[in-house]
Prior knowledge:
By secondary structure, this protein is α/β, with parallel strands linked by helices. The protein is built from 14 helices and 14 strands.
Amino acid sequence: MGxxxxxxxxxxxxxxxxxxxxxxSSVINAITGQDLAVVSDVKGTTTDPVYKAMxxxxxxxxxxxxxxxxxxxGELGALRVKKARQVLNKTDVAVVVVDAAEGRxxxxxxxxxxxxxxxxxxxxxxxxxxxLGSMPKPGPxxxxxxxxxxxxxxxxxxxIAAIADTGESKFRIVGDLISPSDIVVLVVPIDxxxxxxxxILPQQQTIRDILESDAIAVVTKEHELRExxxxxxxxxxxxxxxxQVFAKAAADTPPSIPLTSFSILFxxxxxxxxxxxxGAAAIDRLKDGDTVLISEGCTHHRxxxxxxxxxxxxxxxxxxxCELNFDFTSGGDFPDELSKYxxxxxxxxCMLNEREVRYRTKCAxxxxxxxxxxxxxxxxxxxxxxRSVAMFPHLAAILDGGSER
Length: 405
């Protein structure tokens, strides 16, 4: 991926939902002006959520998601409906497509209620309006369209753009913590899981954010950090390290220089940081037989010393001295039932959008299960969490209310 590409996680996710044969795929094709989705008169043509990243004017970079019908039947159909509902957890804007000739049915009303309960901005698009004798007056969240005849498609796109959260009010990754001409040192080990010749996504995005802030990014490996800092004629504003080498970076970075990790910055960027800092204290409460869920937002090829499935379990066992059990999830999988877990440790979430990370966080909080993330957990176990979040003063109260060795 080039630095000029918008990552999927930073695109506005537009989910297209509805019953089978309501015309969801036709609506996607009409919105994009392309034959992106397979269209058929056969019910259930879309069997799995289909994702398409593109530019959608007047909104900008988006992720369009075509979903299976919410009224699918049978054992396989129930699985498809479950997948469609799971898409809601990452949806920034929902378009509920209803067959205008048939009108709203029970499944449509249940879906709309679910969308409202999740506080997702939505619009109900009554498709196939060309089949109506006259056009009814739509409600405030409704629009009558025809994907086939291209009626009101432009207005639908404008309505989607009007209710979408474009993320302009979100935190920057690091840009709001630095000023023009500041020096930021990035400690970047060569990650075996990254494709040859590339940095992993959080590193790419952080470098881009630094450059967009007119600041200076200095990139070094962990074994060259001390020499790099000594060679600088000005003290850097911040050192950002990969969490896997947190201990070495902390030892080589003078206390007068703020230090944090990519994972901690992404926890803030995705809305998890406060809960992650609070949840880290649960590491000290782990006991023999407890089960820890380690959840990753991506599905990469596992290396022999993978951080999620190998290093974190080893570090937790060594730190606690307890015999712990571990469950692992990756990609879009995240359990609905979390009560069996004594702790959830999530990745940085660079491949997930903010809504999905917040959803997972809320699921944990609602079920009373502590949740933290890789970088926060590692900093906690290494006794440097307070230093690692010192640039966020409000977290001091959380740390003082918990414990940190």
